[in-house]
Amino acid sequence: MNKLWLGTALLTAVSLSLGACSQGTPEAGETPAPQAAETAAGSTESDDITEPTKLKLFVTGATFTDTEFKVQIKEQVEKRFKNVTIERITPPAGTTVQDFFSSGEEPDLIFGDGYHALKQLKVVEDLRPFIKKYNFDESRLKPHTYDYIKDFGENGEIYGIPYNSNQHILYYNKDVFDKFGVAYPSDEQMTWDQAFELGRQLTREEGGVQYIGIDTEGLGMLSRSYALPILDPKTGKSVLNSPQWLTVFQAAKTNFEIPGFLPKDETKYMWGRDVFMKDRTMAMRPAWLANMVGPLEELRQQGIESNWDIAPVPTFPDQLGKTREAQVHSITLSSLSKNKDAAFKVIKFLLSDEAQRVISRNGRVPAVINPELEKEYGADVGVLKGKKIENIFKYAPLKTHASHKYESSITKFVTEANLELARGADVNTVIRKTSETIDKEVEKLLKNE
Q: Does the keyword Zinc apply (predicted)?
């Protein structure tokens, strides 16, 4: 049964009570009128969908498997709204968001991220009128998720509703620690320097096999410990010369300089997920929940399991007590939809405790404030049974930084900077060269607008 927000429920109760006084009590077996939510204007709008409606959902900028869509959205929505069918549009691999919308597709709902591109294509809807019309309770949303979305509204527009908070943890392989007689990571948060020292003890070759102690995956991921932008959100200028970015560059170089860490392929600076999951020769990997939990569960179902657990993700000394910035997966209306009211009712339902409980039990951190839901995190995911789930929620995630519209276009230069560091280049030189390259690229992009 759909659980309505408390305020909506109270208004509904009053509405139904007044209706009963004027119309009498329904006969036994008679279906009561649909529940209604009172709007700020004093009118009422039903949360039900009475007409047969087909909705289409498009996913962009986020990992969301077909199984997750089926369990978390399709089955729930079609159970709650008997007149609704919802399908996922899956374009061919390699299709860009620009290609997708120029193909003539008209989704009703968009799941994921990438609001800069969606705004430029004019395919997202300002949700403020729908939030008001359907009395959606914004106060239930975790601030670090909702504030991130608000950053995209230049004049207060709300372009999406957070669906889940994708957070970072430290995955560690117990077998690698046991093999070399090293104690597991603490349940208390480490600094990056402490993590690197632990990694040094576990980066070694044994029996012709190279074991990797820790792979932070370089600048892009380490910068999330400070929630750093690459560009000033207002000016578009590189901010890599800041003290915090200097700390990040130095940390990345420290990881690369652990003896035995660098891959033999000189075009690479990291090892990647499969070395932890499939080869099982990596001791520690800081990563997103969504990046690892689903794939690890798929391997488990194939009979491939490893002996791993989770600890709080390390950070810099001045950030202890916080984790990295969270990645916000959200859901919004397409401006192309012909069923916007029905689609928003679906969004409202997907943010109910009922629906958010399902996503929590299936391995996604809810976007709503309700500690009871977090206690059920991963309960229906076999690979998470017996794991230290409490370490996911032990420290607060940072809000994802506000980004300039061209940030995604210049991240490649930061990626290239990793290789220079890995090959021994001086930190300050790499920062200077990368900043100059970025500024020139942004200038070129602005001229071509």
A: no
